[in-house]
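Q: Given only this backbone (569 positions), what sequence would you predict?
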């Protein structure tokens, strides 16, 4: 490829609306161009990287028995009605009517399409287990698109769906896919990706993992134990709650004028937030009653955990908003259960001498003993883990880190096959519902994540396996006939074995090298009048680890050695 013919201008100015390194360099390097919020066109360099990532994914999916298919982007609404998600998924699902007036939708995920295909093709146990996958464009009307390709509305994704005759077989295959995912991430240059327990969300199922690239630019919070291998998304992470012994006292109502927040209450009673009991109020989708969650004052409610416990979406409520509660003074003692549903976090279990609301304005109660004065039927874990909490697995210290989700896997069970009436005839002659697994990787997000993990101040440093080209030849002073002859000769020779980009433009060395840094090709060959006068050329690597002057007749041999070294990393 001649750089003079390559579409996609490169520029040195930082885009005003870009903050992440990947977003900055994808724009500056001529990889992508924004069409609308969260929607991008890909130019050739990005498309070449994407094609190599997809090839690696295909190879790994084929190696574990995957069969590549292609589902439609547009689906009739009836499929999602069968699964129940047409009504439960919000506005991120794009719904429309075709010219005949029929309700349709754009696929943001394809569980329904997978079941629709498989239920007519796998009626006998002899077909099981099997896995089908696709690499397909999807559209999710994401309200928070950000960071270039990190969070978009239109995206390319590999999604796979496995079908099994038993939960045990699903668990066996789930582990196989988990290992295949680790191989994929190592091969594309992200060996530091870790698998963490996660919330299944709208996908359903009880077991799921996210694959996270730990980076300061990440949008997810990951809880990592500094002592053992415990890792989990903050949405599902747990920690050991410490309980300090406190003297049992009789309850006493105290006048607390205008004091509604935790910090002010702690200051008023000259105590710490862990001696307080606070109330968080939520609206629950499908319920007319508000939900009050009582939790210790030093903790926060994790809405993902709460959503899973109540089995519906939850939305925080502030003052009044239709709820007949004394906001700012809501307490567990004497709260009328006719006014609200009530949950108690596990942090309150066994606690004594707490301070909580009295359910009337400007009053709190001190000396609350949960076992004596509240006596809940059960406690649930809805607390958000904080930095420095204690690991439940080993007792070590938990740390909060940022991460980018680059893949996910779910054990879906029979959620979709039951609702969509997919059955097979088992070996005993009985009709049964298959159980499913679901496995996704976002290609565009993976491109951005590779840049986040591998860049310097000047541009991306692409791993050899996914680089847009292997070798970048810079011909300095291309108007010099001798220099051009050597440069084009190397381009022809190396092009027989490698993917080569030749910068044939008549520009300054500074411009040429700045563009080369933005394109991030692993190996660079610099041809100049001074070097060829000595029968040599300069070879450098994009990561700056190798820089040497090489005789022209040894260039092929040296490049073979360098590329073999970098390919093995």
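A: Predicted residues:
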């Amino acid at each position: 490829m001649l750089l003079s013919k390559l579409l996609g201008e490169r520029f040195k100015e930082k885009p005003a609306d870009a903050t992440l390194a990947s977003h900055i360099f994808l724009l500056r390097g001529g990889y992508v161009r924004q069409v609308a919020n969260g929607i991008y066109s890909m130019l050739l360099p990005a498309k070449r990287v994407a094609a190599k990532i997809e090839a690696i994914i295909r190879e790994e999916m084929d190696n574990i028995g995957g069969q590549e298919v292609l589902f439609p982007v547009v689906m009739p609404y009836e499929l999602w009605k069968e699964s129940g998600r047409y009504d439960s998924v919000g506005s991120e699902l794009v719904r429309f009517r075709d010219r005949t007036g029929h309700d349709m939708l754009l696929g943001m995920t394809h569980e329904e399409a997978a079941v629709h295909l498989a239920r007519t093709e796998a009626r006998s146990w002899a077909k099981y287990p099997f896995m089908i996958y696709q690499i397909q464009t999807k559209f999710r009307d994401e309200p928070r698109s950000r960071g270039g390709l990190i969070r978009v509305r239109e995206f390319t994704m590999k999604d796979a769906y496995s079908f099994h005759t038993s939960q045990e077989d699903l668990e066996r295959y789930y582990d196989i896919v988990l290992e295949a995912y680790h191989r994929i991430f190592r091969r594309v240059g992200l060996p530091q990706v870790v698998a963490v327990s996660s919330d299944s969300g709208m996908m359903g199922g009880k077991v799921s993992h996210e694959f996270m690239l730990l980076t300061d630019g990440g949008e997810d919070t990951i809880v990592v134990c500094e002592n053992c291998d415990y890792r989990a998304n903050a949405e599902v992470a747990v920690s050991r709650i410490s309980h300090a012994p406190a003297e049992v006292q009789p309850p006493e109502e105290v006048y607390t004028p205008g004091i509604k927040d935790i910090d002010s209450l702690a200051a008023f009673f000259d105590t710490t937030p862990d001696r307080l009991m606070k109330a968080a109020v939520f609206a629950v989708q499908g319920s007319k009653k508000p939900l009050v969650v009582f939790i210790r004052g030093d903790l926060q409610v994790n809405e993902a955990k709460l959503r899973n416990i109540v089995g519906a979406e939850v939305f925080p409520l502030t003052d009044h908003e239709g709820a007949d509660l004394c906001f700012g003074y809501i307490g567990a003692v004497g709260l009328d259960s006719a006014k609200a549903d009530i949950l108690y976090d596990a942090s309150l279990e066994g606690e004594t001498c707490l301070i909580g609301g009295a359910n009337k304005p400007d009053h709190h109660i001190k000396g609350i003993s949960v076992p004596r004065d509240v006596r809940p039927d059960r406690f649930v874990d809805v607390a958000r883990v904080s930095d420095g909490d204690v690991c439940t697995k080993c007792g070590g210290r938990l740390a909060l880190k940022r991460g980018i989700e680059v893949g996910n896997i779910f054990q879906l069970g029979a959620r979709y096959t039951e609702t969509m009436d997919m059955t097979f005839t088992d070996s005993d002659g009985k009709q049964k519902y298959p159980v499913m697994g679901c496995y996704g990787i976002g290609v565009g997000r993976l491109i951005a994540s590779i840049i986040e993990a591998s860049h310097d101040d000047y541009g991306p440093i692409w791993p050899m396996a996914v680089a847009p080209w292997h070798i970048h030849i810079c011909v300095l002073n291309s108007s010099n006939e001798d220099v051009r002859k050597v440069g084009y000769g190397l381009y022809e020779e190396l092009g027989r074995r490698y993917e080569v980009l030749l910068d044939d433009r008549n520009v300054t060395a500074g411009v040429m090298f700045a563009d080369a840094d933005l394109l991030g090709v692993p190996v660079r060959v610099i041809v100049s009048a001074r070097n060829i006068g000595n029968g040599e050329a300069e070879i450098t690597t994009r990561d700056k680890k190798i820089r040497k002057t090489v005789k022209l007749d040894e260039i092929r041999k040296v490049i073979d050695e360098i590329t073999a070294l970098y390919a093995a990393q």
